[in-house]
TrEMBL record:
The protein, known as: NAD(P)/FAD-dependent oxidoreductase
Residue stretches in coiled coil: none
The organism of origin for this protein: Amnibacterium soli
Length: 481
């Protein structure tokens, strides 16, 4: 007999764990998490490269309903975040099925359930929640000669321990957050680092600080003090949205701060010119670092202002024609973000989710897709932020989904009206019109359509006001047969 559950959640990262924990808090034990990996933590389980850390303050990048007083630093290292998520998962560990990959799911209209096929068997569920995240599948560049490169090749999201780089010439492809975090650590380990820079990033001071023992003790003893600190951090981050809107004094001030940071840390004007961005600030991810520029200025990191075009044996060939001999290669090339690969295996009433998202991910309230009854997406279309905590956004979506699941538990089949989804998509694009995010190509946008597919073009507060409570009005509500 096929196993049946109330809610099947795909993914044991922050979103999947958060929903499972809130369901357990509400007394529901009919939910399971299906996780293909061997542990919880999602992005923070997979990314273990030297220097990996969060760029949102730790007290804000954690569940509001599961606070931690003992964060070691303002910006937590990746291993500390993973350990926090593992602790959060302990009360619901019996409902998390590790090493269980979903290979397909189809809506069965006659029964009003999702039939989910995993590599360990089949189960059905009244509701299916995709909590697979965006920073999951590494984007592998199409580099002629890559397979024949004689040295070790690592993607930052698939790091393997034991790589000895002392005295080695190491190439890094990319200048995003992982590259800027990793490169100084490789220099410290004795590597001669060459970064292939297609686009110079905007970098601002990180200003990381450790929490001393007295502060951690105070936060542990005084919930109000810790909550006030979190609220102050939230307000500080939220104020950053104005710097993502074109023509604002806040954007001018942010540019000036970044340029002053570059000038202060890189005295050589010729080198500064190489490192000066030619895109609008914030149209791509703004990076936080106090170490990258000094390592470049000191000669530990050499920047080639050109994309890597090919590999000729152990020689990297830049698009500019420059050739660099390498012993090892690191791909800091990010992730597949247009749509999660699992979308091709999810079949609704009229076809695959991948087809519905052919022109970029979209969903009503950033959660529901027409033609996919009782399917809810967490941390998906237009649910990320360029200035504040993803956890706040995820908790907003969890609150919405919990309301929807109450209806599903009562026997409802919820299928959002396509007109409502279109109106929401139009609203999102209208909100984005005066933001920096439409001024350049980036992983925030869908390449073909140019739509802002990943970010919410507003404040976290506005997202919660818009999407923090479930309303059945935009849905066709049917009774399960």
């Amino acid at each position: 007999m096929t196993e049946h559950v109330g809610v099947a959640i795909v993914g044991a990262g922050i979103a999947g764990l958060g929903l499972l924990l809130r369901l357990a808090e509400a007394g529901r034990r009919d939910a399971v998490v299906l996780e293909r990996g061997d542990g919880v933590g999602g992005t923070w389980r997979d990314n273990t490269y030297p220097g990996v850390a969060c760029d949102i303050p730790a007290h804000l990048y954690s569940f509001s309903f599961a606070p931690r007083a003992g964060w070691s630093r303002r910006y937590a290292p990746g291993a500390e975040i993973r350990a926090y998520l593992e602790r959060c998962a302990r009360p619901v560990q019996d409902r998390i099925r590790l090493r269980t990959a979903v290979v397909g799911a189809a809506w069965e209209a006659d029964a009003g359930v999702w039939r989910i096929t995993t590599d360990r068997g089949v189960l059905t569920a009244d509701a299916l929640v995709l909590a697979v995240g965006r920073l999951v599948e590494p984007a592998m560049p199409d580099l002629p000669g890559l397979e024949a490169f004689p040295g070790p090749v690592r993607h930052t999201a698939r790091w393997e321990p034991g790589l000895d780089v002392a005295g080695e010439a190491v190439g890094i492809v990319g200048t995003g957050a992982s590259a800027v975090q990793l490169a100084p650590r490789l220099v410290e380990a004795g590597a001669r680092v060459t970064v292939f820079q297609r686009t110079a990033p905007w970098i601002v001071p990180r200003e990381d600080v450790a929490y001393d023992e007295a502060t951690r003790t105070r936060f542990a003893a005084d919930d109000a003090a810790r909550a006030a600190h979190r609220a102050a951090l939230f307000a500080e981050q939220e104020a950053g949205f104005d710097a993502r809107r074109l023509g604002t004094p806040a954007l001018d001030a942010a540019r000036a701060r970044a340029r002053a940071h570059l000038e202060e840390q890189v005295p050589d004007p010729a080198l500064r010119a190489v490192l000066t961005p030619d895109t609008e600030m914030g149209c791509k991810r703004i990076l936080l670092s106090d170490e990258y520029y000094p390592a470049v200025a000191a000669g530990g990191i050499r920047v080639v202002p050109s994309a890597l075009a090919a590999l000729d044996g152990g020689t990297a060939v830049a698009a500019s024609g420059e050739r660099v001999d390498l012993d090892a290669l690191v791909l800091a090339t990010g992730f597949v973000t247009d749509r999660p690969p699992i979308a091709s295996t999810i079949t609704g009433t009229d076809g695959a989710l991948a087809a519905a998202w052919a022109e970029g991910m979209r969903a009503f309230a950033s959660v529901a897709v027409p033609g996919f009854p009782n399917l809810f997406v967490l941390d998906g279309p237009n649910a990320a932020l360029g200035h504040n905590s993803a956890v706040h956004m995820i908790e907003t979506q969890i609150a919405y989904v919990l309301g929807a699941l109450d209806h599903v538990a009562g026997g409802a089949v919820l299928d959002v009206d396509p007109a409502a989804e279109q109106a929401y998509a139009d609203e999102v694009q209208a909100r984005a019109a005066d933001t920096v995010w439409l001024t350049c190509d980036s992983w925030y946008r869908h390449g073909a359509s140019g739509r802002l597919a990943l970010l919410w073009p507003g404040t976290a507060t506005a997202f919660r006001e818009r999407n923090g409570r479930f309303d059945p009005e935009p849905y066709r509500v049917l009774a399960r047969r």
